[in-house]
Amino acid sequence: MAKIIGVSTDTITYWENKRSHPLLMNVPKIVKFLGYSSFNIDVKTIGDQLRNHRLQNGLSQKKLAKLLDVDPSTLASWEQNKRSPNMKKVEMFLKELT
Fold first, then answer.
1. I need a surface site. Which of 5, 47, 69, 71 has the fewest CB within 10 A?
2. pLDDT for the residue 98
3. What long-range pairs does 72-76 form, CB within 8 A, spacing at least 24?
4. Is the distance from CB of 48 to CB of 41 less than 8 angstroms?
5. 58 burial via Cβ count (<10 Å: 0-12, 13-18, 19+)
6. In whole angstroms, how far apart are CA 1 and each of 20, 24, 57, 60?
7. Per-residue pLDDT, 39
């Protein structure tokens, strides 16, 4: 597993013993290795969908915000369902998903 994900066997042991957590950039490889996602995110709102997509793809808020051409604090407010993106941004997000 360590070789597939690109980390050391010690790193895997730390994850298993809850001494550390995988970096966001490792998540896509872990999901692919396991064949499923361990994230349990409700995806009823566009904010939830954005967060789910970001985590599944190992993206930071800063990186996804750049892809969507918005400020990271704006993306954070969408993910927290404090604000909603305009339809143009939603369309960009849906395009990003495909």
1. 69
2. 55
3. 75/50
4. yes
5. middle
6. 17, 17, 19, 24
7. 66
Place of tokens 């597993």: 1
Query: Which one, of 42, 95, 56, 48, lies nearest residue 75 by Cα?
Result: 48
Going along the chain from its start, the domains and CATH numbers come out as 2-34 (no CATH), 46-97 (1.10.260.40)
pLDDT in tens, 37-66: 766 667 788 888 888 888 888 888 998 898
Question: Does residue 78 contact residue 68 with C-beta atoms inside 8 Å?
Answer: no
In whole angstroms, give the CA distance from residue 94 to residue 98.
7
Residue 74 pLDDT grade (very low, low, confident, very high; cuts 50, 70, 90): very high
Entry pTM: 0.64
What span, in angstroms and rounded, lies between the C-alpha atoms of 59 and 55? 6
